[in-house]
Amino acid sequence: MRKFLISILSILLSFLVGALVLKLSGISPLEAYSVMWEGAFSQPNYVAYIIIRSTPLILTGLSVAFAFRTGLFNIGSEGQFIIGALTAAYLGFIFHFSPWIQIPLVMVMATFVAAIYGGVSGFLKARFGVHEVLSTIMLNWIALYVSNYAVFINGFRRPDMETTEFIQPSTSITLFSDWKVSDAGVEWLSHHPFWNSFLRPPVNAGIFIALLAVVFVWVILNKTTFGFKLKAVGFSPTASEYAGISTKVKVTQSMMIAGALSGLAGATHVMGVSKNIAALATHEGYGFDGIAVSLIGANSPIGVLFSGFFLGALKYSGQKIQSTLEAPSEVIGIMIGAIIFFIAIPKVFDFVGKKHD
Prior knowledge:
By secondary structure, the protein is mostly helical. It has one domain: ABC transporter involved in vitamin B12 uptake, BtuC (Orthogonal Bundle), CATH 1.10.3470. It has helices at residues 2-24, 29-41, 44-69, 77-94, 99-128, 132-151, 177-181, 183-190, 193-198, 206-223, 225-235, 237-242, 247-274, 286-296, 301-325, 330-356.
């Protein structure tokens, strides 16, 4: 409960910081926040876009939170996301099966490859003592340049473009895409304005996968012996060794699960939204945003669910103040940074309190 209240207070304080930045930029904070609110919730299609934007944030947030709860810092969620997206894009392009086979096969394979990629840093820590922060930072850049290299592979690259071919239609998890443009769909939607607006964006099944992942992580951490052992290793590796728990194996397994969750985020993004991948000059940011989602959500699966939606809404509605008021879009980044800063403040106050006790 205390962590929840800290997150709420941090969010409120971050809005004050954002208001200060807007005021210094000559823009009314009340007007800006009003535009953000209307840009997020005034139309059903805006809500749909927030759900789409939030889906990968929830999954990468779960990835970081899972690692945190087991004593690890998975700063490599971005690289794992890229590997999952790349695998889904490639397999989704070369496979030609029925959707009932293609969709789960591509998603499972993308998740598995990302799990192996995440497990590399766990193995390096368990076997050679390499800190996961160092190894995952390096693996992030390796993933980025592997992805850029793959984009230019002949047969996988779109002619004269720096993007891959699109995945097969049988790989797509977008909902009602064919029905929306059919005569029956157009007729039905014309009589249902709410759904006509809500289904306009590429609404996809990714959010349901993210919700299942939240339940999956919660059950593992709180209701299984396996999860108890993972948390025990994170809390005290030495005590766990004395209790007969193989800490080296558990560290690797924890990073594999974290990698799988980030890879699943990449797979759902490709299969539900982008349908291909492009050459990138820098990281997209879904994995790094997952760190903020995890911290705001107090590293709990349920908290991550709500913080993922919050951050998705903040980033989507933040675009509106730039186009409507010509406000600097960096305000949203400042607000997110302020949230993390204020979440860290209680640690300082705890320390000061102990000094005076």
